[in-house]
Amino acid sequence: MKITYLLYDGITALDVVGSYEFLSRLPQAKIQFAGTHKGEVKTDSTILRLHTDFTIDEITSTDILIIPGATISFLEVIQNKKLLQWIRNIHESTRYTTSISSGSIILAAAGILDKKIATSHWYSKRFLESYDVTISNKRYVQDGKIITSAGVTAGMDLSLHLCEILSDAETAHAIQLILEYEPEPHITAGFMKNADKKTIERAKRKIKDDAFRNSASSII
Amino acid sequence: MKITYLLYDGITALDVVGSYEFLSRLPQAKIQFAGTHKGEVKTDSTILRLHTDFTIDEITSTDILIIPGATISFLEVIQNKKLLQWIRNIHESTRYTTSISSGSIILAAAGILDKKIATSHWYSKRFLESYDVTISNKRYVQDGKIITSAGVTAGMDLSLHLCEILSDAETAHAIQLILEYEPEPHITAGFMKNADKKTIERAKRKIKDDAFRNSASSII
Description:
By secondary structure, the first copy, chain A, is of the alpha/beta class.
């Protein structure tokens, strides 16, 4: 079972690695990191680096496609017509086409979310609004073979769900226990519906600061 | 504020990256990845790679030391006397000395957990028992300047706590919201106290299988 992650410069490492730790533990999982270039990929936090082992030209089909998000560089990715065409093509071959965080904006730009229910990182939902998409406020949402998640750590919830539907509940439970994924956050500010106004403003400012620091982009 | 992660071959990527996404967002955080060698570090899942930018010889002090865990290779690390001496030395300089998952076995082997309360990944707790340590069943536990967490994703809870004590609640809340860290797992099997016997047996078998596959070690 081929599971392909699309990596690109500026990506959020935890979008990738959180999901990867769940799915790489599935029996028969064959993980592939693919990108427009082979080798090092810079993350949005600049210090941590990831790697692609394949260029997108080398991958013409996959069982599962996963498009992680980024603080800001997803807006550059959606300008890449060749990459969007690759996503449309490979989507034809998938059992599930999925995104984590702002990765859904890339799926939307490829036209794959048209008339679908989908979600995104709360900060990038405003970009989803310009597409023909019904926006969900769940941690992750499935519409047919498309599954999208909310921001960063919600990608782990999506991946746990994938473990269950790709194998069985027993396997998913065992992987969850190995990763001890049953958090007890001592503060509840991690979800928009629970966060107060001050926290939301502070988070927005921080995202903007980080995006400005790491990118020349002015689209934020 | 220097935050130093000790990386070593066979490490669990999510132990590192989950924590990193929280702490790298702290104002003034200067993240350093250190190891016995500079360059590529293999993870226990074999496909994903991390990098060290410093050898341990280059780092003589740090504000925060973080020792992530591994499926099995922490048992090789505790044989490395030079590394354990480095940990003892650098511990003298820290504001907080911390571990994630089975990383606490390395702290224990360095003698740093003597007469302390600490925790570990549930599967590696039996190794803690051979040291003079009081074992906690919390997601993370602080004893003076030492903070240890349970397995893998519990490292994010520890890191959220660190965000709060190194800055303030407001900053920690904003980072939590950026990472949308308020999971709603749809199955509760991620914590030993909630997992059924079948799940526990399945998880143990999986850990052993993975450890055998990736290591020649027979200590498991």
